[in-house]
Structures are given as C-alpha cells and as structure tokens.
Specification:
This protein is of the alpha/beta class and 544 residues long. It has 3 domains: 2-240, P-loop containing nucleotide triphosphate hydrolases (Rossmann fold, 3-Layer(aba) Sandwich), CATH 3.40.50.300; 241-290; 320-395 and 439-530, Rossmann fold (3-Layer(aba) Sandwich). The chain is 41% helix and 21% strand. The protein contains 17 helices and 19 strands. It has helices at 40-48, 81-86, 90-103, 110-125, 131-141, 158-170, 188-200, 212-218, 237-272, 279-290, 355-365, 402-407, 415-424, 441-455, 471-483, 495-501, 520-543; strands spanning 2-11, 14-20, 23-24, 29-33, 55-60, 66-68, 176-180, 204-208, 221-226, 229-234, 320-329, 332-342, 347-351, 373-378, 384-387, 459-463, 487-491, 504-509, 512-516. Helix 15 links the parallel strand 16 and strand 17. Helix 9 runs antiparallel to helix 10. The longest helix is centred in the middle third of the chain and has 36 residues, at 237-272. The two termini are 53 Å apart.
Length: 544
Amino acid sequence: MISTQNISLRYGGRALFENVTVKFTPGNCYGLIGANGAGKSTFLKILSGDLEANKGDVVITPGDRLAVLKQNHFEYDEYTAINTVIMGHKRLYEIMQQKEKLYAKADFNDEDGVLLGELEGEFAELDGWNAESGAEILLNGLGIDAEFHYSLMKDLENSQKVKILLAQALFGNPDILLLDEPTNHLDLASVRWLEEFLINFENTVIVVSHDRYFLNKVCTHIADVDYGKIQIYVGNYDFWYEYTQMTLRQAKEQNKKAEAKKKELQEFIARFSANASKAKQATARKKLLDNLEFADMPASSRRYPFVQFKADREVGKEVLRVEGLSKTIGGRKVLDNISFVIDPHDKVAFVGADSIARTTLFKILVEELEPDSGTIKWGVTTSQAYFPQDNSQFFEGLDISLVDWVRQYSKDPLETTVRGWLGRMLFSGDEALKKANVLSGGERVRCMLCKLMLSGANVLVMDEPTNHLDLESITALNEGMINYKETLLFASHDHQFVQTIANRIIEVSEDGIIDKRCTYDEYLEQLDEAKLRKQINEVDTEED
C-alpha cells in the first residue's frame, strides 16, 4: 500500500498541492486525471521519491517494491533489452551481477562461498531462475520479437525502447506500479495487451493517461487532481465524468434557486422593513436570508475549449478517388498500389501499425508530397483543410502574437472577432498576446484547431489531432468531430475517439489496405476472428 500524509508543494507563490492525504490500496488501479498543469506527473514523482514535497510524507508498506515507467529512452543504451527489463527489479539485478563476479573470481575463497550461498538463497526467493523467461514473456507480449531480446538498446528503434521500458516497469510483479502515459507511442496490439495485463494485475497501479478508453478499461478508481487537492472516486473514467457533471448541474440548480429566493427575500425586506405591521415578517425573512445556503463551487482548473467545425458549402456527390498510389520513403515502400473512393459524409479512420504510411498518405492527399505513381482526384465541390501531426512549421520562428497568428486565417481581421476565436480555444485576455513561437504542444494544437474551424472546409484531413491535448480538450474535439456534417479523414491512437466518430475503417500497411464500412470495435472483432481462424488453420496444417 502507498499513501500520502498532508503533502504540500508550492512553486513560487502558487500551491500545486495543499495538505493532500490519500491512500492507494492493493488490488486497485487508480487513474490519475486532471487538467494540463494540475500536477499529475509531479505527484507521481513525489510518490516515487524523484521529487521532494515542501511538506508531508509518502508512506509505503515496509517491504513493498515500487516500480516506475522510465521516460529517458537513452538511459540504458549500453544494456541489452533483456537486462534492461530485469533491471526493473533492482535488487534481483544486483544479485545477478554479484553472483556473476563471484563465479568469475580466480581466487575464490570460503568467505566468497558463504556470500554466494546467501545470494543464491535470496536469488531463489526472488524467483531469479525465471527472470529471463519472465522478461521474454513481457517483451513478446508487447511485440518485441525474440531476435531483438539480446540487442543493445542503442541499436533499437525508439518505438521498441518505449515497449522495453514499459516491460521493465511491469517486470517481477511489483507491489506498486506507477505509469505515466504508458500507451504513448504504443501500437494497437501492445495497448490491448497492456490493458489485459493491468486488468489481471493484483497489486496497486496508479496511472496517468489521456486515453479515455484505456482508463475505462483498466481503472477501478479515479484520482482527480483539482483545486490543489486529490479526490478519489470509485469507478472508471466515464463514471467519474457522469457523476461530477451531475453534481455540477445539481449545484448550479441549487444556486439558481437560492439566488431567486435571495432576491425575493431582499425585495420583501426592502419593501416592508419600515412598515410597523410587517416588521416581524421582515425580521423573520432577514434570518432566512442569513441562513440561505449556496452550494460550494470552487474555480476548477479544468477548462473545455469550444470546438465546432462548419463547412461553407455542402460537399457534392464526388469527394475523392485514389488509384494505384505508391510511395517509397528512405528506400522503404510505405504505400504500395493503394486505391479507394471516399463518399460524401464518410468519416474514415485510417489505422495500422505503420504511422509513417498514414502520414505519407495524408501528405499526398493534401499535395504536400508527390506520389511515385498513381493518381488522386478531388471532387470539384470539395475544399480541404489539413491538420498535420508535426505542426512546427506554423509556429517556429514566428515572433508574432496569437492575435496576429489567427488573423492570417480569418476572413474577418477585426481584433474583436479574432479574440473571440481565441477565447473559444481558451486564450483570453493577455494569453491572446502570447508569441506564437513560445507555445506549448497543447497550445499549438488548439491554435491549429482554430485554424481548421476558420477554414470552412468540407473535407477535414487530421493526423493524430489528440496528441498533446488534455482530456478536456480531447472531449471537446471528440464532440466537435462527431457533430461535423461533412467528410472526415483522420488517424488517431485514441480508441474511444475512433469508435465514436468513424463509420468506416481503412487499415494501411505495406501490403495495401483493408477497407471496412463499420465501427472500430466491429473492425477489431473481425480482426480477432481472422487471427483465430489463422491459428486454427496453422494447427490443422501441422496435424496433417
């Protein structure tokens, strides 16, 4: 078990946490949520001991082992993938190293023998004989093939390092597991494997994630970081959201009624307080006024942008025809003879393990790249707006305010109009005068969404639009894309995002495409059924 007692942390004059006392118990998975800047990752660092609070204590049950998902992809460059995973259990790895040194000693003595016996005993207690096989199971589950298990970390791709560091955190059945954005950069299969792992994990998990589907799938509790406090709710993310929204509505309704009652009492008192015959009634109403209760509604750090896409004109019968599209990037053919037709009002999610293939396809569709072969033909009534995964070209080196940045894309250049658009995206007052070249990742994304809303396009092409956004912004964008009446082509790793928006799934791979007119969950079910049939056929073939 891990708990905090009166934890407080201040940066300058700002209190990030104030007297936080919470308890995280075994057998539960806690989703740590809150707006960007609320202190989620900071709180995990306090729990892990990487950051010291100004006041208060972190208490861990004696003997419990705590594991943390590391973020530095270069920390283990000189170690093999297997050893990097095993290093997740620090004491076990130390014993393995000590044993290796003792067995290699040329002048091995009795004292060494006693020490070795003690180490072997502890090694067995920690299930050391199964360490390598346990590490291999984790790596295989996360999609790291056996050929890479003994490769040095520095020789592996970043996508592989992410999975290996995750396997390191999961290794050895830790008593307390701290995970900060574990699904970032994971492919679909790895995310699904991790979901199953955490569902079956019997110890304590505290996880930060912007993936609502993931939080709904794995969490038994939600730890909400807001108002400088942490409040724990039983249930998953959707339950927390519905409960808090209902509570907020009830508080607003209570205050609305209380305000009306207050006005009524004040009017009576003002009217009859000088009237001798009504003096008693006026006094009674003063008491009622003094005792009138309003629901406490502290200012939340959560802010929801307003996202609404409207097309200037409806799309015609022909939207897009792609025929025989091929493209090679860096010597690798990422698109091979791709063909498909997009119909009016299609909302198509492009999925697949190869993000380069999807991004390349989108860049060709918006004419930022030329295909090696094949054609694309947009309908004459279409107008396209593109949300790129890498938006740096729109901001870097631009020493202009956000007002001037948005003005570039607005049909109405008046500052009041431009500021109105910025206000929708949570840039109000002096925030609208920020320089474009100093924005955070989430702020840039909100600006790009503003640009798309101003475009009036009837076809939106969006490559990972949820990257860098907090849950509140993702929720607002999700609703905006659901309500958009025209055509959407998009890619996202957010399961709930894809499931609630797309009516068609196109999987892009080196081998071509799989095109299904269905929801994302239906597509995944079909995928699972196909894999099962393949496994059965392989078994039947072996038996024959």
